[in-house]
Recover the amino acids of this structure.
């Protein structure tokens, strides 16, 4: 039997609710589809920090390395600084395992309503490819003359030929596998004349390796407007760490809720385990209430299954989620009144039903 070793890190806030929900659904799928999941859950995060002074153990990356994938909830705490919690856990894993490609699909699921007047389910089908290792979030910069009027802070955006080339190749390869074979390369090369012009140049170089893909350039501000005005004109998008971070929240909102938006932090070379997480974060305002939307985590779980080579199970999970959403079994963020447990139970039932038929 195929066995996949999964490291689960629920982390903070609603991560503690959605990851167990995701595991429940994954276990139901494994049983129906004939594979096994060995899951080990790690208690790392902000509570762990309060007990130990660290977000994860010093040798945490060594512990994670042998796993086939990491299933991650969220990090962020109302009482701890974000840079401490994020850099101490999530970004440490992303950077330590060189998960340079962050993949963010967006669709309006059946039963959900886009806030855009003329958009119905099926109209939006995007994949945003976010550069995940450098750019504006490289952590490069510093502070000097603290507390003085001359105090200075720099945050340097880093673009390397190796880093930009590999994310372009990833994005073109994804676009080449999709029906429309259309890639929009997002930059701000009119104003940011070094890094972003470099990005455009490398896009043109890599494009030559992918003759079947039609590609175009778009400035990030114009792209934000286009996502609202002409969402049907977009398919695959590649953008820097910062630009894609912002555009992907817009994408989540346009799709009906950030509560359904999934992501994969991939090391496409597979030297290290990749990490799968819902985009929404720890949402401490609703944490502990059992009302978090588990759909982002289910979709994330489907991306993880795909990465593990379980494409049939991944498709079955998406179908089950679509059936449940279409039936109106929805959490409050998408206009329903079901809680996390009810949505999870409905998805498990849909998985079991599909296979019994
Ligand atoms: C996201 C989140 C994170 C990011 C934050 C929490 C650092 O906003 O996944 O988009 O920007 O990577
Ligand atoms: Mg974000």
């Amino acid at each position: 039997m195929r066995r996949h070793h999964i490291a689960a890190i629920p982390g903070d806030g609603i991560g503690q609710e959605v990851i167990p929900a995701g595991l429940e659904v994954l276990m139901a799928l494994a049983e129906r589809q004939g594979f096994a999941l060995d899951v080990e859950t790690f208690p790392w995060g902000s509570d762990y920090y309060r007990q130990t002074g660290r977000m994860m153990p010093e040798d945490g990356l060594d512990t994670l390395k042998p796993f086939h994938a990491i299933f991650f909830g969220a990090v962020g705490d109302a009482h701890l600084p974000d840079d401490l919690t994020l850099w101490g856990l999530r970004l440490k894993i992303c950077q330590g395992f060189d998960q340079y490609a962050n993949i963010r699909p967006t669709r309006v699921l059946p039963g959900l309503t886009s806030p855009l007047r003329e958009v119905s389910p099926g109209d939006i089908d995007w994949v945003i490819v976010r550069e995940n290792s450098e750019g504006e979030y490289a952590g490069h910069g510093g502070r000097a003359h603290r507390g003085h009027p001359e105090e200075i802070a720099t945050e340097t955006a880093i673009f390397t030929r190796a880093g930009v080339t590999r994310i372009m190749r990833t994005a073109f390869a994804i676009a080449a596998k999709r029906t429309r074979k259309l890639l929009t390369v997002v930059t701000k090369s009119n104003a940011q004349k070094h890094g972003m012009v470099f990005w455009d140049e490398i896009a043109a170089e890599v494009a030559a390796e992918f003759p079947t893909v039609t590609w175009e350039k778009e400035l990030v501000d114009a792209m934000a407007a286009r996502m609202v005005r002409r969402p049907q004109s977009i398919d695959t998008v590649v953008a820097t760490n910062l630009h894609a971070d912002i555009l992907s929240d817009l994408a989540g909102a346009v799709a009906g809720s950030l509560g359904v938006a999934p992501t994969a932090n991939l090391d496409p070379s597979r030297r290290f385990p990749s990490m799968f997480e819902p985009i929404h974060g720890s949402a401490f305002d609703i944490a502990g209430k059992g009302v978090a939307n588990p759909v982002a985590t289910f979709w994330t779980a489907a991306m993880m299954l795909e990465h593990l080579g379980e494409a049939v199970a991944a498709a079955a999970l998406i179908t089950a989620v679509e059936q449940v959403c279409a039936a109106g079994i929805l959490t409050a963020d998408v206009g329903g009144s079901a809680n996390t447990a009810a949505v999870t139970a409905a998805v498990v039932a849909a998985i079991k039903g599909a296979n019994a038929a």
User: Anything to note?
Assistant: The CA atoms of residues 224 and 247 lie 7 Å apart. The two ends are 23 Å apart (CA to CA). The chain has eleven helices and twelve strands. The longest helix spans residues 15-33.
